[in-house]
Design brief:
Helix content: 40-55%
Radius of gyration: 37 Å
Number of helices: 10
Number of strands: 6
Distance between the termini: 83 Å
Strand content: 5-15%
Largest sheet: 2 strands, antiparallel
Shape: elongated
Order of helices and strands: HHHEHHHEHHEHEEEH
Length: 290
């Protein structure tokens, strides 16, 4: 059965992208080989190195056959390419880039620079127009193919493009799981769960009597029962322990009442007060303004 002339657009774009990636890999390897050389010498000869790499890629692919390396990986080839068109393909892909890179750092006249910019803009415009034509027609994604009149053909009998959905399925499941966490986690009272777990698994003997004490004292050894650090903006809420403002406020934003971690006294939001280092009862009874 003869090979099908139809080639999907995505296969042609993938082949062009693979050719570009192969060139980049070889270019990076060349830089690794020459990384211990003087950087000014490498930059000076970089256009020639790039041209030589492109020549070798062409020599071992399109010169000896009818396909580039990217096309070979996707079972494609140029159905109507000749030796003359193959040489012109090399010239059109190597010479313009070589001249651009070679003259980039050189001092040239403003008129010549303006001319190069105009030519570059025209080429980019033609590439964009060719892309639109390719999307409509389905052949010759690169402008060099259109100029030479060559088009990709399949080397095997046409088969439907197989697409693996396992990756897509994993991504959909992962995004669904993230949406579930984003929606569900804010509804969970983390502070209450942490407190309940600490009560269940803690081996400490609690001696709380449930009697509230309104006169806590703070000294250099005082630690917040929640974060075990020196209280920042110290507050208390009815027991002898002093909390950080944000530690205690976070609990009361989750629930109005909870038990102190140290003495098991039931604390309420209404009793939350700022700690003031004075000996008068009035200072401790001063309500917290929130």
């Amino acid at each position: 059965m003869p090979a099908s002339p139809y080639v999907s657009r995505i296969n042609q774009i993938d082949a062009a992208q693979l050719d570009e990636e192969i060139y980049k890999v070889l270019r990076n390897q060349a830089k690794e080989i020459a990384k211990y050389q003087a950087i000014e010498n490498i930059d000076r000869w970089q256009p020639e190195i790039d041209a030589i790499l492109k020549f070798f890629i062409w020599n071992f692919s399109l010169r000896n056959g009818k396909s580039t390396f990217g096309q070979q990986l996707l079972n494609l080839h140029y159905g109507n390419v000749s030796r003359a068109k193959s040489v012109l393909y090399l010239i059109f892909t190597v010479v313009p880039c070589y001249l651009r890179d070679k003259l980039h750092d050189r001092a040239i006249s403003p008129n010549l620079q303006s001319m190069f910019r105009r030519v570059a803009n025209v080429v980019k415009l033609l590439e964009f127009v060719n892309l639109l034509v390719f999307l409509h027609r389905g052949t010759q994604p690169r402008i060099v193919e259109y100029v030479l009149g060559i088009a990709s053909r399949s080397t095997t009998t046409h088969k439907p493009r197989t697409i693996g959905y396992s990756y897509m399925t994993r991504e959909l499941l992962w995004h669904g799981l993230m949406e579930l966490f984003t929606t569900g986690l804010p509804m969970i009272n983390i502070h209450y769960l942490k407190h309940a777990a600490k009560k269940v698994w803690s081996r400490k003997n609690r001696t709380g009597t449930g009697i509230q004490r309104s006169f806590p004292t703070m000294n250099e050894a005082t630690k917040c029962p929640y974060c075990n650090e020196t209280p920042i903006l110290p507050v208390h809420a009815g027991c002898e322990h002093i909390f950080c403002y944000y530690c205690l406020k976070a609990h009361f934003m989750a629930m109005n009442d909870f038990q102190c971690y140290e003495c098991n006294v039931q604390l309420s939001f209404e009793n939350m007060k700022m700690y003031e280092a004075t000996s008068t009862v009035e200072s401790f009874e001063k309500p917290l303004s929130v």
